[in-house]
Amino acid sequence: MNLVWIDHAIILLYLIGTLWLGLWISRRASKDLNSYFLGGKTMPWWMLGVSNASGMFDIAGTMWLVTVCFVYGLKSAWLPWIWPIFNQVFLMVYLSAWLRRSNAMTGAEWLQTRFGTGRGAELCQLVVVVFAIVSAIGFIAYGFKGIGKFAAIFLPWDLSPDTYALLIFAVTTLYVVKGGMYGVVFTELLQFVLMTIAAVAVGVIAMQQVSPEQLAAATPEGWDSLWFGWNLDLNWSGLIDSVNDKIANDGLDLFGLMLMMMLFKGVLFSMAGPVPNYDMQRILAAKSPSEAAKMSGLVSLVMFIPRYMMVAGFAALALVYMQPEIQAAGAGFDFEQLLPYAIERFVPVGLAGLLIAGLLAAFMSTFSASLNAAPAYFVNDIYKKYLRPEGSTKEYIRISHLVSVLLVVIGVALGLLLESINDIMQWIFGALFGGYAAANLLKWHWWRFNAYGYFWGMLSGLIASMLLPLLWPDLQPLLAFPWLLLAGLVGSIAGTLLTPADDEAVLVSFYTQVRPWGFWAPIKAKALAADPDFFPDQTPGRDAVNIVVGTGWQLMLVVLPICLVMQQWQGFWAALLVLLATSWFLKINWLDKLKD
């Protein structure tokens, strides 16, 4: 892409400014491990929420969203359920508060509040550390593939995608390693402002250049409808024939069945709580349980409208103005390149530099958040606990730097081996997280579930998710989820029933501190016997209603900007009405009832 000097200057200024800000803040990060990994638990919830949203506004995911919006139209609003995006609703309604009440530094350390400190608890922590590191490597490879494909089109030097990715990784790794959580959060605030401006600008450009009539002529019947039947029934024949092959390869012809699978997997996964990555670290970094809940609620609110204005804008521009050449390219067209191609064609001088800087910010936010979270598990739960318990803060932070660099090296090596963004995304969100669900669902809701059950459940799920792409490379991870869940359940239940129950004192302490709902009757009775004034403060019915309403609220945050950019005014006003009604309900039934 031929950028003018203004665009080059904006990109260069952004990179220098981000690096300077991250390094300038690094002094605050080096006080102790709590400051380095959690920002001292002093940052306000809105700052953590915007930072978390910035970390989720990733470039690889955005490229995928543009592709699915192009192919599936308004129905693409459902497809992020594969991640699932509605896990943020479960977090904001009750899980963030439960997690934050532990006052731990990492997810592995949190397990001490649930399982105590015996041999089984140590095995639990070890398996969570392994999971955190494996998932971080997967996210690094995911980001590496996305930023390489993106940068190869825009940056001016004639280098390979992998070389560009290595250069950008080097800049980001430097400020993350030096700045810790403070560096990550403050740079992500800057990055989020850039991303929002760029995203809204793309949506406005699309509204100016694409009319509803042009869009209708370029798309098949049903493309502009949110609703669907058992079959997808989108026929691109005569428009862009290769899109029919894309739909078949995605395995979404039976759209209703696949969405049911996404919902089934997503609800169980969401109830299991966040995986040990940057999302969990921001929850643990909040000042209090209520602030952790508000932080999780803010993520969807600030991220979805600008992000989906960008997604819908690029999809609309590509559909109307690139259709002939995509049709001519046939099966050889790489749909994951829609986003960078659209930027090259439709974004004016000046804004192009800002947009590229914003998308670089999106990548750097996701990468930096993942890279900040994973070393905490090794340093706090392995090195400090077993290898050097008497080490100094400087030593622990130095080891964290080393672990960060090592994770980047391994993640890059994996990224070099894999061909597509979709391959990595399907494995992370389908297989790896699928193996996580069973043990982490049971830990919240069943009193008899013990440390050995957790260890064997996590280990069996992790092994199954690692073997899946080797033994059945053609099987979609989403369809494999029931088998991954079964593997985790067998390991969890067998490990629990074949070993003694955990110490009742630990269980009572956990129950009174976290106050989860579920199958806790024997422990609840002991807690009340020890303290007749104890009040469990459990509201499972209210939580369930808030989750259903919150999921509808979140879906409207996706539908609203897509309808706005596509100028589907009937859908826009309907989505706005539902959004206002659900916001009012959640204010009364969730926000006003938060307490510490």
What does this molecule look like?
The chain is globular, with a radius of gyration of 24 Å. It has 24 helices and no strands. The longest helix is centred in the first third of the chain and has 49 residues, at 161-209. It has 596 residues and is mostly helical. 76% of the residues lie in helices and 0% in strands. α1 crosses α8. The mean pLDDT is 82.
Helix and strand element order: HHHHHHHHHHHHHHHHHHHHHHHH
The percent of residues in helical segments reads over 70%
Residue fraction in strands: under 5%
What is the strand tally? 0
Question: Which characteristics define this entry?
Answer:
single chain; 596 residues; mainly alpha; 76% helix; 0% strand; globular
Spell out the blueprint of helices and strands.
Blueprint: H1 5-29, H2 33-38, H3 45-56, H4 59-72, H5 87-100, H6 107-115, H7 119-154, H8 161-209, H9 212-218, H10 241-250, H11 255-272, H12 278-285, H13 289-321, H14 323-329, H15 338-346, H16 351-387, H17 393-417, H18 421-445, H19 451-471, H20 477-497, H21 504-514, H22 521-530, H23 540-566, H24 569-589
Tell me briefly what this model is.
With 596 residues, this protein is an all-alpha fold. 76% of the residues lie in helices and 0% in strands. The radius of gyration is 24 Å and the shape is globular.
